[in-house]
Each structure stands twice: as C-alpha cells, then as structure tokens.
C-alpha cells in the first residue's frame, strides 16, 4: 500500500501544554483555543461563521503509535480493550476528532470552545457538523 501524506493546514494555540493534565474530552473543561491557519488555506474558511459547530481533525503528534490495547480513559480498574473501540489518542494513526463551537474569527485565526488538543497540535482539516435537516454544504 502506498504511504499517505498529509499536510497540516494550521496548528492549535492553547493554554493546554501537558497531556496528563488536559481534559480527555472537550466538554470536560477544555479552555477556549485558537486554530491558527496557514495563509495558503484562508480562502477555504469562507462560509464559516461565529456559532457554527465544526469537526476539527488533528494529528496527535505526541501520541504513541504502537498501542493497540488500552484501559478506557486510562482507568486500570476497567478491562483493557482494543484501541479502535476507544477515543484514546494512542493508536497507529493518531488522528484527533474534536467537536468545537466557533466563538470568534480573526483573519487567519478561529477561536473555538471545547478543544482539548494541546498547544502546537497540527490541524489537518475542518468540517461543518451537519444536522439531518441541514442543507448540504
């Protein structure tokens, strides 16, 4: 199989710098953070507005890639299970999936709520969260 090559479209600016103390999910107390986008992709932000809910895909660059089994949420009292049945960042391809709300847009920066990604995390893509009755974008 041919290797897949990804190019980040930006990075995260966040007060979260330590994985051990970061929330495991965005709705568990994650602070506001900024998505800082590369100039080359700014035209792709057209149509995003304050209040929108986005799915942010990140590359969890500090995750282990050799893990196939984990204790859910790091709780050793729970039985280990396969990593693909969990939201663990440690996995063969550490792609993060984050549901966020747009709080502010400032040229090449988008302030979002509920992002548990660490400062400096590469951003791979943004996608709008569509409801069942939403217009197809």
Automatic annotation (TrEMBL):
PROSITE patterns named among the record's database cross-references: TSAA_2
Superkingdom as given in the UniProt entry: Bacteria
GO biological process: methylation
Region (Disordered): 1-29, 71-95
Pfam families: TrmO_N (PF01980)
InterPro entries: TrmO-like_N (IPR023370), YaeB-like (IPR040372), YaeB-like_sf (IPR036413), YaeB_N_sf (IPR036414)
Domain TsaA-like: 6-137
Keywords: Methyltransferase, S-adenosyl-L-methionine, Transferase
UniProt GO molecular function: methyltransferase activity
Keyword Transferase: yes
SUPFAM superfamilies, alphabetized: YaeB-like (SSF118196)
Protein family according to the UniProt entry: Belongs to the tRNA methyltransferase O family.
NCBIfam families: tRNA_TsaA
Protein name: tRNA-Thr(GGU) m(6)t(6)A37 methyltransferase TsaA
